[in-house]
What we know:
Elements: H1 2-22, H2 28-85, H3 92-101, E1 103-117, E2 126-141, H4 142-145, E3 166-175, E4 178-188, H5 189-192, H6 198-205, E5 217-222, H7 235-240
Antiparallel strand pairs: 1-2, 3-4, 4-5
Amino acid sequence: MIITLIAGIAVAVLLAILIMKFIPLKLQWLVSIVLLGVAGYLGYSIYDSIMGPIRFNVEKKVRYAKVIENLRMIRDAQDAHKTITGKFERNGEKLIKFLDSAEFAITNTHNEIKQVNKGTKWQPIMVEVEEKVTDTTGYESVKETVFKGRDYTQMLKVPDTNEEFKITVGYITKVAGLEVPVFIAKVDKAVILEGLDPHLVRQEKEAIGGDEVKGEFLSVGSLEEVNSNGNWPPFYDKKVK
Length: 241
């Protein structure tokens, strides 16, 4: 930007010298008008090159915030599904139907003293052992607790687009013989930022983190580790709080 500005000033000075030397006095007013027009165009170009990325970042954050809200709902829905069924759901429509009637079990854990035979059938040795016992005392609706005031029926849609999030589920091995369910829901940044400067969109897809969303996608969850976090920076969550 600085190089462009210096080059523009140098060209303007050179043109002014050429006009004074080679353009007849009676035509210099016409050239001056042309130069004013060129100066105005260059000034606008410089202004736009500065403000373009600023406008892009403002619009990007507005769009990302809407998308992140839906990704949060997908995460909460998957977490509820895993809590109740022990696994994640790959089909988005089935996940929504699940939330319509799903209920969390309300449990109460207490200790009980039981008599346990530490001897044999013929020579019993009864010993008192304290055990934890969990009783189910009732149930509560998932949609009334986790999704109260939130329209989870629209959570699969990428806001302001005709696209839906891609949901993938799988399993990873934590320790030998133990497989843990994982999931990821994601959307390409180019889908969210459609209609904005293509050059800036390409730059955004190459972001490496920090205060930016890392990588090509906006996503929640992971297929490589047990993690249901989103890949967006923390300030998006602070705004919600």
